[in-house]
Amino acid sequence: MRVLITNAATSLGQALADSLGDAHQVRLTDPEPRFGIQCDLGHGSETDELVKDIDIIVHLAYEPRAGDGENTWLDRNTRGTYNLLLAAAAAEVEHTILVSTLDLFAPYEEDLTVDETWKPLPSCAPAVLGAHLAEFTAREFAHSHELHITIARLGHLVRAEEVADQPYDPMWLDERDAAQAVAQIVQKGPAGQYNPIHIQSAGARARFSVERAKSHLAFDPQYNFEANP
Fold first, then answer.
1. pTM of the entire structure?
2. In sequence order, which ranges of 157-202 are alpha helices (DSSP H)?
3. Do 96 and 57 form a contact (C-beta atoms < 8 A)?
4. 128, 132, 138, 179: most buried, per Cβ within 10 A?
């Protein structure tokens, strides 16, 4: 399949390119010119060209970069996501995967078994609010333009070897496991018009359940951080 990865300059974008590159034709795009096709996901022909002949889009909810202000971050999560999905609908893209965050559920009490059926509780922090607005935009497109959209909500991305001596975070997710899960979503295909799925480590102390990812995707995280204090 022909897969477009947005915000490809990020560490996760590069991990996804490596994970998907052997089995699929991967097209990369990023606001920076040195990673694939430079595109700000504007409302113009460049975004239409970006999604041309693409089967699946993996849209990484935009992460703030050095020098960016909050308005830039929110603009790319809202306007950029809108423009990308509008172009995807016109091009009849089969499946869009929006990568979001489990921080949308952090306000719930830790002893509650929160799953994909629960309502997000976004804060006003730009990183969390931006992800929520991107999800809202995606949900509206799924209903109004009949796009098939999967929301992949990820935990806190790390590399296990780099946090071996750090205090345990129950929302950790190794970047390689994240790439594995997204690759499985690509392979599995959409499960309905709009489908959220939670992805993080699966240890006994993990904050959120990944049972749906295990059953739907056969997700089997290799890094569960149980040895950390």
1. 0.95
2. 175-188
3. yes
4. 138
